[in-house]
Specification:
34% of the residues lie in helices and 25% in strands. The protein is built from 7 helices and 10 strands. About 7% of the residues have low confidence.
Length: 260
Amino acid sequence: MKRKLKTGLVLFCLFLSLGEAMAATRIIHVFVALCDNDSQGIVPVPKKIGNGNDPDNNLYWGCGYGVRTYFKNAKEWKTVASIKNPRTNILERLIFKHKVNDTWLVADGYRGSNIKECTVDFLNSSSGNSLDTITVNNGTQRVLLQLTLASLVCYVGHDGLMDFSLDVYPKKKGTDTKQTIIMACVSKSYFKSAIKEAGATPLLWTTGLMCPEAYSLHAAINGWIANETAQQVRVRAAEAYHLYQKCGIRGAMGLFATGW
């Protein structure tokens, strides 16, 4: 009887440890609509960096402050995989692993003309409706990443909801509440109804026009990983934006908002 109790206790502790390990793994999913002069209602940028079919030179992806380049150069992140054309609308998928804790970041670079699909996929993920699953090699370890479990979901790019409307917004599925970051112009106004329908919590979005380069996203994610408050995350993003844009910290603080 004692042996059975001891065995049961060991199994219970093992199950508890596995559960804690799984809970410690966090996933961030970043959706990037590549900058595109031809298909997006933006103030045109130089042709080379405004080609939504060319991820290598795109303002929001392959340029120095684009998501791909910035996170590849970030000291906190290790590039685990780069996958070309993983899906019809996605030109490149990058998978990063944080060097200190068990946090994964998946960044998808969408063709610029597919900004609507990118927006819908972002909202599907924010509402828990994404079914995307990735298996990736991390050294000798084979890792399964279920993107439906992403706890932080981010959008980077032009605010497509300025140009088009969606017939319906994806509704919340499941019990988990996602947090969202939306790096796009006036995103609080344009995405408010959609994020409410998704049942997500807006960690960071914007109140005015902005340049959605990766430094503010990177700063905000660092704060999120450190379990800082929403206000501290906002300050991080504003400080980074001011550092690169030289817009004044007061203006940068006014640009970023958290919560409703």
